[in-house]
Design goal:
Layout lengths: L1 E5 L4 H10 L4 E8 L5 H12 L2 E6 L2 H14 L3 H16 L6 E3 L13 H11 L2 E3 L7 H11 E7 L8 H13 L1 H7 L4 E8 L1
Parallel strand pairs: 1-2, 1-4, 2-3, 4-5
Antiparallel strand pairs: 6-7
Helix pairs in contact: 3-4, 3-7, 4-5, 7-8
Length: 197
Amino acid sequence: MKAQVLFSGGKDSSLSAILLDPFFDVELVTCSFSILPVGKVAKVAADELGYSHRVLELDRSILESALDIIIDDGYPRNAINYIHKTVIETLAREEDVSLIADGVRRDDRVPKLTDAEVRSIEDRFGVSYICPLHGYGRSAVNLLVSQYMVIEEGQSDSIAKADYETELRELIRQQYGDEKVLEIFPEHVQSRVIRRV
């Protein structure tokens, strides 16, 4: 059975793929709104991990709706969760998809689906949704990552990555400028896989 793992090229989605590998045929799926070449960034990491990879091209209107949410709220949580839920529903509609996984950890604030949202997606689309890292906190993930991968970490605006935030930041930058991006997104560290050990 194939597991479609939502993939940003970072340590969490990469570790999820590695943990699922003994049980499923892993395919990494990177979402793109065609604003930035995030698919190419993720492909480099996917090749280093040794998994097949594809880009799921999404309608830009999804990102524009998320932009409206983030501007109204003044913070990213609801906008990122909206994108994540929409991406999973879009992927679940594909004919050959039966299992969707992501790299959401126990202590992540975003993206995160509620139990009711997960049940709704599974019931409506006949898919299974798995979060292999859901029982792991950041320190446990870091310990596992150190055994399997070499990563680069840095502030989110300085790391080449392929998560939802990357293109959302760029859309905000294009429409409102750099200052608005800094106002909305708190500083936080993100990662990118360099190679598998």
